[in-house]
Amino acid sequence: xxxxxxxxxxxxxxxxxxxxxxxxxxxxxxxxAGSPEADRLEVLAILVAEYERKSHPLAPPDPIDFLTFAxxxxxxxxAELAELLGSRSRASEVLNRKRHLSAEMxxxxxxxxxxxxxxxxxxxxxxxxxxxxxxxxxxxLGLLVLIGAAAVGGVFWSxxxxxxxxxxxxxxxxxxxxxxxDDGRLVEYRRYVPLSQIPPHVIKAFLAAEDQDYYGHGGYxxxxxxxxxxxxxxxxxxxxxxxxxxxxxxxxAKNLLLSGEPPSIERKIKEIILAQRIESTxxxxxxxxxxxxxxxxxxxxxxxxxxxxxxxxxxxxELSIAEAAYLAALPKAPNNYRLDIAANRERAKxxxxxxxxxxxxxxxxxxxxxxxxxxEPL
Length: 378
Prior knowledge:
It is a single chain. A hairpin with a 5-residue loop joins strand 1 and strand 2. The protein has 3 domains: 3-55, no CATH class; 63-160, 434 Repressor (Amino-terminal Domain); 175-374, Penicillin binding protein transpeptidase fold (Orthogonal Bundle). By secondary structure, the protein is mainly α. Strands 1-2 form a two-stranded antiparallel ribbon. Helices cover 60% and strands 2% of the residues.
């Protein structure tokens, strides 16, 4: 690992920071995929793009130019556009005569090919000298952005074709489960409870531990992804488990629909695609209800009701703040924090107390309530 890759990535606030970041990007362009240098390059590129957006605004790209680049990147033909729009003449007029895209066309292209509706809907660039000056100034950066967006769209479109659609997700339900092995031992237990029967302080504990911005994002969190990437760079070589930045919705997608797939970049992309579909189909409360009833808590316990019974011999509605914080600490690594394993006791309490501090820091409980709960023994 290079010395630069071990240093934390600094925010870009000045032109000097900007030029320094560009120089470092040049040095890291040949970084091997998956290496710390590649992760650092990705974070730097995002920061540079954000700085340029604020300090060096560019005219929006021409919608038809963008569509043409996207089709090339995804390997699509005019015939495929004609099939999508339902008319060969429309496809020809759009690509060859640069006919303006109608709202109906924009909707079909955005949904069918996963291209950003905002760019397709942008006002067309002016013609003549002004347009040529803008295009010359933005040519390199604009081309990279367009090809990158099209490539990302193509990847998501490719992975998303075989995943469940909104209609399938909307009808997903749950049932009580009690499964035993050949010796009669309970190996999976779940008792489904509606969200209305789960106290607010229990819900707050899970939001603090797993997804503080749950009610603010649309299925995945870009700031959380950037934070995780930066943390992974800092922790490189320490032996710590890489940060995943998975939201509650992504975890639900993984547990319900991708449970048989091992961790990989491919699975992470699928999680994001499914999280977006889940968020567009189900309410936040319904997603949270499904999550709390499916998450694994160690041993045979699946779901909040089974966990409350296994660890405390009570229902979710009877849990104290301290007990709720302990259960919220489990999903991260159930086997490391289970109370029925004596060696886990100390780190289980540390993890529970961390959740309580997060609840207080996020304003979900008072500081005095957190301190009182921390004094309770496990």
